[in-house]
Structures are given as C-alpha cells and as structure tokens.
Amino acid sequence: MREAQPPAARSRRRRTVGLAAGTAAVAGLATAFVVAAPPSESAPRPVARATVAASPWMRAAGAPLTVIAHRGAPSAAPENTLVSDEVARRGGAVWIENDVQPSKDGVPYVLHDATVDRTTDGTGPIRSLTSGQLDALDAGSWFAPAYAGTRVPTLAAQLTDLRERGGKLLLEIKGRHSRAEVDRIVREVREQDMTDRVFVQSFDVPSLRYAHELAPELPLGLLRDTLDADPVALARELDLSAYNVSYAALATRPQLVGDLHAAGVAVNVWTVDTPARWKALDALGVDGVITNRPTELGGWSSGRTS
Q1: Which of 27, 175, 242, 278 has a CB 3.0–4.6 Å from the CB of 221, allowing a cystine?
Q2: Burial of 266 by CB count in 10 Å (0-12 exposed, 13-18 middle, 19+ buried)?
C-alpha cells in the first residue's frame, strides 16, 4: 500500500510491549485513514457472484470477509517482521500482507519503504545495501525496546516461517522490478512449495506481467489508489484474480464490485480500520479487507455471520 506507516504505530514507538501483550494491544490502536465519501452502508450485495464460474477468491454469500493483516500487526509489533506476522497469526489472521524488494545483491527482502530509514537503525535505499548490511540492521528498536534486535526478514525467511507455523501471504512486489528480479521472487516461492499459499499483487503492471509469464499458477491482484477507466477489461487483459483497490477509490464507483464479480474477479479493499467502514464494505459485497486491525476485524466479521 502507498501509506508509509500505519497510523497507530507512530504513537507507540517508545512503549515497551511483549509479544503476548502486543497481541492483546491490537484492539483499538489503529486509526482509520480519512476519505471523503464512504460507500453506502445500505448498498445491496451484488447478485452477480451467483452468475459466474466459482472463483476461490470470491467469498460466498453470507461468508465473513477475508481478513488480511496489513504488514502483520503493525499497531502491536514492528511492521513487516516475523514477530509482527506472529502477533497477527495469534490474533486469528490467516492472510498476511507484506512487501518485497531486492537488496543490492538481488536478495528479496520484506520491507515497505524505498529506504530503511524509518523502520530500522540504518539509512539509505534498500537497493543500495547488500544482504549482509541489511541482515545487520535492527528493525525493532524504533517501535519499542522489547523488540530490539528484530531483523529485516528475507522473503525466504518469511516463506519458511509461514510454511512451518501456518498462514498465507499476500505479497506486494513493491515498485518497478525487472524480469530477473521477479524471477528470483517466483523461484523462492516455488522452492518452498508455497505457490498454493501466496497471492501476488502490485501497482506495477509490468511486474504482474512478468509474474504471470514466469508462474502462471500464482494468482495476481492489481493494486490501485485510483480506478482505471475500465477495470474489468484490464483484469481480463492481465488475467487478474483480484482488483485490490483503496477505500477512497472504491467510494467513487461502488458499483464496480458487482461489475468485477460478474467477470469472476475478486475485490479486496485497503487499508480499512473502522467498524463503520467494515460494515459498508460487507454490505457492498467486497471479498477481503486489508487492515491494521486484523484481530478486531476478524471478531467483528465472525460476529456478523454467526
């Protein structure tokens, strides 16, 4: 996603929290970003989902929203780290959303920003640092002293963690990547036998094209903070499984959910942190929500469908 830092994390940098306490602390800590016009809370669920071939990425009528933990649990642990993933997992999240970028020597690392400055004790663009330099960085102290020594994980380390401990990965290819860089990502997913548990997304269309050429078995999602002129046509062109759009953008054309569902394309919305907006998106029929508050969304969603 575009936003540099989940809002709640800014106010928690100096507060010492343990892993178990961090799990409980998820509740109420993230703050929703502001948009001008929310989708109507009374909007009907699109009926088109019953008229297309079943897609594993579209939720059935009456099923709860898919909860996607944005960078793990960033209100309770340092984002895009294995401990953040674990906090989200302990809070009930199955899907983890993280970002991948290469080091100077081509090793894929899990990091959101173009530089390491905000979330580590280092400085400089990630692409200017070697894997050895990145491995030496402290990615936890900025958040809280309890997380001192937390490392920036490689994609390989994250995949191993998910494979062994459970979970699925919504993996954003961050920024423009060459074909060789996408190939390295794909090879690491395949080498760990994780193709059935990884969903690739990106704002960068060429990166998605490379991913599809290299690994047609991987589902693809196009990230958007403004809507394309014809999202359905673009989804067909790119062979998308999902169109992953910001809440603000979807608010400008909420009927797009039905149009995409009619084409067999799922809709996941980012980054949404308040019950009022969860309710509006649930009524609109979106399939998944990317959130800084995965534990609360999971409880809220389950309660509505129980």
Answers
A1: 242
A2: buried
177 is known as an active-site residue: no
- How do residues 275-290 score in pLDDT, each as one tens digit? 999 999 999 999 999 9
* DSSP reduced 3-state for 116: coil
The count of structural domains within the chain is 1
| Active-site choice (112, 177, 212, 261) | 112
Q: What distance lies between CA 224 and its chain's CA centroid?
A: 13
Q: Is residue 141 part of a domain?
A: yes
Q: Which of 126, 131, 130 is nearest to 114 (CA)?
A: 126
| pTM, two decimal places | 0.86
70 among known catalytic residues: yes
CB atoms within 10 A of CB 300: 17
Catalytic one among 70, 177, 212, 261? 70
CATH number of domain containing 217:
3.20.20.190
